[in-house]
Fold:
Amino acid sequence: MNNTDYITIASLNQFSYCPHRCWRMFCLGEFTDNQYTIEGTSLHERVHTVGDGNQENIWQVRAIWLKSEKYKLIGKSDLIELENDEWYPVEYKRGRKGEWDNDELQVCAQALCLEEMTGKEIATGYVYYAQTHQRQLVEINDDLRAETIATIADVTNLLETGKMPPAIYSKRCKGCSLYSQCLPMAVDKVKRYQEI
Ligand code: SF4
Structure:
């Protein structure tokens, strides 16, 4: 990486889900689909093909690129809305609200870009969960901003060094499309065997 390179907003989401997965995807270039990733891709394709326009005094713009020079971030938004002179991002997800906060972090990263592009503070964003058809409010507060900025630094460091974070088995592994490449339980067993 050099100082003209950008990191993707998607990589922050992946790092927050699992640093080892982020390393596999963005340092090794590995990716395998599973049911969840295919459903996610098809949802985003549907969202991006709906046109821009006005809906009940809310201006909607879909599938535009967001960028921040300050944080060296880039990524495509699903939906940006303007209501009562307030801009906010809406990120679409295939399932229901999960136990982890990587979706909120992705919305916050979009808000940081949008703030730089509009010159206005973004106080809120949303995650739309397709399974429950519900929008989850995301407050772009100081804690979430700090967590997002720290994750940007972590991902930048990961891409610069290429150093592999350990694969640690957790509940998240069950839904991970890279499970068969990673084999976290086997890695764990080998490590324990070596320690005997
Ligand atoms: S299987 Fe688990 S440890 Fe391996 S990349 Fe996926 S989430 Fe990370």
Remarks:
- The longest strand covers residues 86-93.
- The mean pLDDT is 88.
- The radius of gyration is 18 Å.
